[in-house]
């Protein structure tokens, strides 16, 4: 049944300012252009496919540091975007080979968005063959999707009400399942959001192309992309109509828009809760834990207590070292970092990185006034 939307008075005012993506906090130490140029001479680049080279062919080579690995990255941006950066930030340097090296504020800004795409949206891990070009099936593994959430009602084939004021959702896996606002049913995100999934609105095939689009969309250059910066009014309408048409074909006269909930894994829910309690325990001792934390520890790790429910510190010290090793392995896997890249990332560094990603994704999904749960897939 083809629905008639002519009677709907669309209003996105309550969600248009909602954040969808947030740049990673780039805490790079200052390096001069010459220092970065020297580092770039020893750049170890991945085996870029001809498809990736062709996709990026209209962009200029750009070098900057990855804020997570601290290694030099070779990416690409358009001359127009580089002009925007030059006008607003210090540190855009053109080389004799017609490429660019970024330092200072320009490097911090670009690298922060690079890390969002590469790690928070999961491009590096999704690029299964590490050739720089993501196929449709690889893009399905990225957390690039976003949508609104609300209610609608219709009579006959006419949609008569559409309330989109509940929330926006973001960092949704493109190939993941969607769950209704009430949690009663689920469907594939790419089927619900068919128009923009099929036309590539949510994700580009290379990190460079997505970086280019992201920086162009960040009009105020504040490191946060709002819904209205990513979608025009007409696109907001189309996204909503896709959701309504998909939902209406299977259910009754008053329906919910689909919200998007994947099971939250080690790194987001259980892992971070464990991490926070265990770090506090290691640093300050058992007596520093509050009642809830002690109960959580006893329930989660009964082997750390004797038959009288007394904490065994000597057993904890050994356990904690194993936990750190496991956490490092899972964190690297989540980020898509490989051991053969000679990365010397410690438990403390990965702990901070994981907390930063958690805070960023929580920020965009908890800022909605009517919906506080986090709906995101962060499978290690």
Structure description:
The structure is a single chain. The protein has 380 residues and is α+β, with helices and mostly antiparallel strands. Helices cover 41% and strands 17% of the residues. The protein has 15 helices and twelve strands. It has helices at 33-40, 50-55, 79-88, 104-120, 123-126, 136-139, 189-192, 194-198, 207-217, 227-230, 233-248, 270-284, 291-300, 313-335, 347-366, and strands at 19-22, 60-65, 72-77, 92-94, 100-102, 145-155, 158-172, 177-180, 186-188, 224-226, 254-256, 258-259. The strands form four sheets. Strands 3-2-5-4 form a four-stranded mixed β-sheet. A three-stranded antiparallel β-sheet has the order 7-6-11. It has a three-stranded antiparallel β-sheet with strand order 9-8-12. Helix 4 crosses helix 9 and helix 14 packs across helix 15 (347-366). Residues 252-267 and 370-380 have low confidence and may be disordered.
- The number of helical runs is 15
For the termini, the CA-CA separation is 40 Å
What general form does the structure show? Answer: globular
Largest sheet: 4 strands, mixed
- The parts where pLDDT drops under 50 for at least 5 residues are 252-267, 370-380
Short description:
This protein has 380 residues and is an alpha+beta fold. The chain has helices at residues 33-40, 50-55, 79-88, 104-120, 123-126, 136-139, 189-192, 194-198, 207-217, 227-230, 233-248, 270-284, 291-300, 313-335, 347-366; strands at 19-22, 60-65, 72-77, 92-94, 100-102, 145-155, 158-172, 177-180, 186-188, 224-226, 254-256, 258-259. Strands 3-2-5-4 form a four-stranded mixed beta sheet. Strands 7-6-11 form a three-stranded antiparallel beta sheet.
